[in-house]
Structure formats: C-alpha cells, structure tokens
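Obj: model holo form, ligand = nicotinamide-adenine-dinucleotide.
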Amino acid sequence: MSKKILITGGAGFIGSHIADEFIKKEYEVVIVDNLTTGQEKNINSKARFYNCDITSAELEQIFSAETPEIVIHLAAQVSVPNATKDPIGDAHINIIGTLNVLEYCKAYGVKKILAASSAAVYGEPQYLPVDEAHPTIPISNYGISKLTMEKYIENSGVDYIIFRFSNVFGERQTAHGEAGVVTIFENAMKNNLPVTIFGDGEQIRDFIYVKDIAKITCNLAVSDVKNETINVSTNTECTINELFKILADKYGYQQAAVHKPERNGDIKVSVLANSKLNSLAEVEYTDIRGAF
Ligand SMILES: NC(=O)c1ccc[n+]([C@@H]2O[C@H](COP(=O)([O-])OP(=O)(O)OC[C@H]3O[C@@H](n4cnc5c(N)ncnc54)[C@H](O)[C@@H]3O)[C@@H](O)[C@H]2O)c1
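Output (holo structure tokens):
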C-alpha cells in the first residue's frame, strides 16, 4: 500500500499542485485547509478534504482518523504586508499553527514533515547567491515567523525537511501571496490596465515554477533525505523590468509601466543558491523566460 500524505494548505497555490503530483503517483492524499486564501476549486477530487484550521484542537481528530506517514506543511499566513500590520495574527498561524501540527505529528507517529519556509528568513543578502549557510537576519515579521517555525521543527524530534522557497510562479497563483507579482502583472495586462512597478524595476528575483516544486517535494518526501534545510530556487536572475517585458510580449500589452517609489523592506536582489538541492534531488527547472 502506498504511503498516506497529509497536506496542510493543500487548497492553496503551491499545496494544490503538490497534492496533484502525489495523486498522479497514486499516493493517498488528505488535505487540511480552512480556505482563507485557498480555494475549493483547487482541490483534487481524489483527495480527502477537511475544512479545518491548523490552530484548532479539531486537527487532532484528523490525525487520529488518518494517521498519515508524511505531512507536507504549507498552511500559513502568506502575506508580508499582513504580517507587518498584524504580527499577532501572523504568529498565531505560522508559529502556533505549526506547533499544533508538530504536536500531532509526534502523537500519531508521522515519519517525516516537509515544511514551507521562505527566502525571507535570510533578510538583506550579505553575498550572492544566498546559500543555506548565509546568516538568517529577517527584516520582516513574516521572515521572523517563518524562521521561528523552522527552529521549532528542528527541535521537535520529528524527522523533517525545511524548504526555503524563492519566488514561486505558475497556474492558480493569486495576487495576495508572498510573490504574486507575476499574477498581478498578468491580471492588469489581460484587462489592459496600468501596471505599477515599485522603484526602477531593476530589483532581481529568482523565480521557480510551481510544478517543479511539486515534483521536488514529492521526490524528497519519499526519499531517505531527512533533517535538512534546503533552498528551492533556480539560482537564475530575472529583473522585474524583464518580467514586465516577458508578460507584455505574451499579452500584446502596449502601455509603459507606471513607476512608483520603492517600497519599504523590499530586498533589491534575491537569488538563492541551489547546489544543495541539486545534490539531493534530480531537478529539471522551467526557466521563467520560456514558461509563457
Ligand atoms: N508563493 C511563494 O512564492 C512562496 C514563497 C516562499 C514561501 N511560500 C510558502 O509556501 C506555502 C504555500 O504558499 P502559497 O503561495 O501556496 O499560498 P496560498 O495562500 O495559496 O496557500 C496557503 C494555504 O494555507 C491555507 N491556510 C491559511 N491559514 C490556514 C489555517 N490557519 N488553517 C488551515 N489552512 C490555512 C490557505 O487557505 C491556503 O490554501 C506557505 O507556507 C508560504 O509561506 C510561498
């Protein structure tokens, strides 16, 4: 019998693709999501879905009924600005919610937890590309809650893999999340509305395709790799101006971008090294330049 996988946040952008990938490989998939930012239409019909908040005591009943072998933990407060406005709300979901998940992983014998962290834990890069040994000095509340989540997982006694994702893009992304810039640009361009770029647009990002993340997660979940923290990125540079041009070409968008002042806390260059990931998993990367 194949392993049972429980995915928190499985109705969301990244989680729903991970669920699809496991189901394609004939694993049994259980999804826990409270649909705050996730959507019912994202949920694979072959998954068993529980509408449940990860911070609630009801989560225990799900672990007790399902006894999953592997947990993929993606449910989170995902907005950097929301974490600035409401740090308590952010910490409640990202820290207390994770502790709740960890308690039941321990109580119900989960073999391994894979959790989504972020490039935000590094803060301002001291060198590039940023590898896993880079100091972690987050400059946002979101980065702080994700780093705290990492520490609790490392200290839990449950075998784990922590993924530090760079900027993720792909189908089902909405504009609200950590790296919704692709979707924000696409939505505006499709409707021929103005597109805003904060600052000069020469900010550099490292975009990774969501279906590549789904494959990487699936492979590492069932591998022997454990107790590792791994950057998940392409280590490829793309400026926001370049992204604008790629999408403008795709949608035949003729307007120039509207430039507004740089946003506080925006990191100028964010590129994550991926040699550790490449040494642990077979990965084929989709380049954002060829993705559209
Ligand atoms: N998208 C990115 O570029 C990116 C980058 C780095 C890290 N991440 C991390 O990856 C994970 C998935 O992000 P995403 O981009 O798919 O965002 P998303 O908002 O689409 O997914 C998050 C999911 O968690 C659910 N959720 C939120 N709070 C919950 C709660 N209290 N109980 C149960 N479910 C809850 C939401 O309904 C949603 O389905 C998050 O942990 C995020 O921090 C994302």
